[in-house]
Design a protein that fits this description.
This protein is of the alpha+beta class. About 30% of the residues lie in helices and about 25% in strands. The termini are far apart. It has a single domain, classed as 2-Layer Sandwich (HIT family, subunit A), CATH 3.30.428. The strands form two sheets. The chain has an eight-stranded antiparallel beta sheet. It has a three-stranded mixed beta sheet with strand order 1-2-11. It has nine helices and eleven strands.
């Protein structure tokens, strides 16, 4: 797999898949504003197409009642992909945040659990050298917690790439894969597991540059902030995941884009 093959996939899909083409064209027109939160820059993106993800119902009953949109048999016939390591399929995300946005589901329908797949994340980051790879835990922004998947977005988009001085984040850097695997396992084991026995709540960003990996782990204590379900003026439809924690908050509703403040973002980050 090469960057050329990924570029070819984008060109082919945007030529032949109307939904994806329209959403990537619309992405060029999205509104963005910048806020300074506790001395760090955060961007806010008004992206109506992301309502599907932000408002996704991820409770057990809703998951049982819908077809899995990441399983090959349920994907749109126009959606094509590239095999990776015989375990994943690299797809373009038809509801993008990034100018180049990938979804990378496992071939089999298996739960969103990172422990045995962190090494695959490092391999992806190394192979997709122009991308930041990210993982959203099953209760930390993953809209398909029943089907394991990564996502990836082009470098140069997330503020955290340039400024990793972030509170409540663990950053690991190494040019040795085994060191990263060992460090990640120590962090994972030190985190508090969920009562029902699933993995600890976390979001992860990883990328490869200057012959080393950079991994940012965000421990979580809450899926969605109180403002998500608040009534009236207090309501903000914000469901933070890796991209938000990396410095780009996504607002699918115009009212939220216009009214969200640096104070709101700071409060959300502290809460989750």
């Amino acid at each position: 797999m090469t960057q050329i093959s990924i570029n070819h996939l984008f060109n082919e899909q945007l030529s032949n898949w109307e939904l994806a083409r329209n959403n990537y064209l619309a992405l060029e027109q999205v509104r963005i504003k910048t806020l300074i939160v506790d001395g760090r820059e955060y961007k806010v993106q008004f992206n109506p197409a992301r309502i599907i993800s932000s408002a996704a119902k991820t409770d057990a009953q809703s998951i049982r009642e819908r077809k899995c949109f990441l399983c090959a048999e349920n994907r749109p016939p126009e959606q094509k992909g590239i095999s990776f390591n015989g375990r994943y399929t690299i797809l373009i995300n038809p509801f993008p945040i990034f100018p180049r946005h990938l979804t990378i589901p496992a071939l089999e329908h298996t739960p969103q659990l990172i422990a045995s797949r962190f090494g695959d994340m490092l391999d992806l980051a190394q192979q997709l050298g122009d991308y930041v790879v990210f993982y959203n835990g099953p209760d930390c922004g993953a809209s398909a917690p029943d089907h394991f998947h990564f996502q990836a977005g082009n470098k140069g988009f997330l503020p955290i790439e340039k400024d990793r001085n972030v509170q409540n984040m663990i950053c690991i850097e190494s040019d040795k894969k085994e060191e990263l695997l060992d460090s990640f396992r120590k962090v994972y084991d030190a985190m508090e597991e969920k009562p029902e026995g699933d993995e600890p709540m976390m979001n992860i960003l990883a990328w490869y540059e200057a012959a080393k990996w950079i991994v940012c782990i965000f421990p979580r204590k809450k899926h969605r902030p109180a403002c998500y379900s608040a009534e009236g003026e207090a309501n903000l439809l914000i469901s933070p995941a890796s991209v938000d924690l990396g410095g780009v908050f996504i607002t699918p509703l115009k009212k939220d884009f216009e009214k969200i403040t640096a104070e709101d973002i700071g409060k959300i980050l502290r809460e989750i």
